[in-house]
Amino acid sequence: MRGTSIMIAVDAMGGDYAPQEAVQGALAAAKRGVPLILFGNQDKVLPLLSHDCSGRRALPIELVHCSDVIAMDDDPVKSILRKKDSSIVRAMQAVRSGRAQAFVSAGNSGAVMAAASTIIGRVPGILRPAIGSFLPTNTGSLFCLDLGANPDCLPEYLVQFAYMGYAYVRLTKHIAQPKIALLSNGHEPYKGSSLVRKAFDLLQKTKLEFIGNIESRDIFSGQADIVVTDGFTGNILLKGIQGTANAVMDW
Amino acid sequence: MRGTSIMIAVDAMGGDYAPQEAVQGALAAAKRGVPLILFGNQDKVLPLLSHDCSGRRALPIELVHCSDVIAMDDDPVKSILRKKDSSIVRAMQAVRSGRAQAFVSAGNSGAVMAAASTIIGRVPGILRPAIGSFLPTNTGSLFCLDLGANPDCLPEYLVQFAYMGYAYVRLTKHIAQPKIALLSNGHEPYKGSSLVRKAFDLLQKTKLEFIGNIESRDIFSGQADIVVTDGFTGNILLKGIQGTANAVMDW
Known about the structure:
- The structure is a homodimer.
- In chain A, β7, α7 and β8 form a beta-alpha-beta unit.
- Chain A has helices at 20-31, 42-45, 76-82, 87-97, 109-120, 155-173, 194-204, 231-250, and strands spanning 8-11, 36-40, 61-65, 102-104, 132-137, 140-145, 179-183, 209-214, 226-228.
- Chain A starts with 7 loop residues before the first strand and ends with a helix.
- Chain A has a five-stranded mixed β-sheet, with helices on one face. The first copy, chain A, has a four-stranded parallel β-sheet with strand order 3-2-1-4, with helices on both faces.
- By secondary structure, chain A is an alpha/beta fold.
C-alpha cells in the first residue's frame, strides 16, 4: 500500500485538544489504511497509541519524537526559527525531504504558514501563499481563499489565488471547470474596493471560469465552487460565519 | 405636541413591499403620537390611509404627493438628479428646509445616501458619510459603521466613523462612554490590514473609549457598543451575518 499511496505527516501537538484529539484522528485515519507519521512528544503521544506497533495487526502509524512544542499564541516566525525540534518544523522538513507528501496540523496556523513558506517554499511564480478552506453551501461546499495569510493584497495576488483554488478544487473535487467568484459588496462589475475592481478586470482576462462578483450573503447558494478574496476580508467573513452560526444556535 | 416634538419624513415608496409596509409602519408610529409626513404617490398611498385626515380623531400624518419613484436598482446619483419629484428627493428637501427633522426610508440606500450628501450635506469637518446600523448581540446591540458607503477608506475616515458612532450611540442609547472597537483579523494590536493598523494607532490617540481590535466572531459577545470598519469590510460582514443566519435556520 505504501508504495502507491502518499504518506501524511500529522502534528500530534497542534490544536486546542492536543495531543488527544490529534492522535484520535490519526488512529481513525490509519484504521482506514492511510499511512501516517505522527510528530510529537513521545511521552505524551505513546500512551495514547493503544495499538501494538510491532505486532501483526499494527496500524500504518510511525511516531517521530519532537522535544519542542509551538504554542497557539507563539509568534509564528520567531517560533519556527527557535523551536527547531517542534512538531511543525520537523513535519515540514519530512515533507520537504519527500518522506511525507502532505502535512496536517490543527496548531498555530501562522507558524504552519511560515514553516511551509520557509522550509518547502512556493511554486515558482506564485507571489504569496494563501490559506484556503472549504465552506458548506446549500448544495455541497465551496473553496474560499485567502482566509487570513495576506491582510494586504495586490490585485495580482487575487488572480493567483484563483489559479491556486482552481488547481486544488480540480484535484480534490474532480470538477473540470470550477466556477470562480470574487467576493464583493455587490454583484455588479463596478462594485467593490479599488483592489476588487482591479482584480475583477484581471480575472476577466484569464481563461478561468470567472462568474463575476459574489456577495457574502450569496456564498451559501452554491453558485460558485471557489470564492477569492484578500486575507483580511476572508478572515472577517470566516469568523463572522462562525460567530453568527454559534449565536443563532444559542438563540 | 408638534411644537415640542420632531417631525419625521417617511418614504412611502421605498422597500420591497412598498407602499403597503411603509404606510403600515407610519400608521403604527402615528398611533403612538409620532407626527409624520408621508412622501409618495397619492393614488397608491391614500387608499392605504384608512383614517379620516380631517376629523377630530385624525392621526398626525400628512401626505405629500410625489410623482416619481426611485427603484431599488436605479443608479443612485443619476436617479436623484433626474427624479426631482421622487419621494427620496422631496423628503430630503423637507429635512433640509426644517419642515422635518429626520427621514426614514427602506428604499434604494445608495440614492438615500446621495440625496443626503447633496441636499443636506455633511457636518463641517466630516470627510465622508457612513451607513450605520445596530446589530444584535448576546447582551443587547452594537452600532456598526461603515456598512457600505465607502468601499475604500483612509485611516482618518475610520476615526471619524468612531466619533459619529459615539455621538449616535450616546444620543440613542444614553451610554455616557460607549466602548469602541475596531474590526480586525485578530485582537492583537499588530493585527490587521495596513489601513486597520494605522487606524488603530490614531484611535489610541483620541479620548474615545477605544477597547482595541475585535474579531468578527466576537461581535456578538457584547463587549463593544460600537464597531468601526471600512464600508467594504462592513458590507461583507453584514451580508455574511444575514446569509449565515438564513442558512443555519434553513439547515
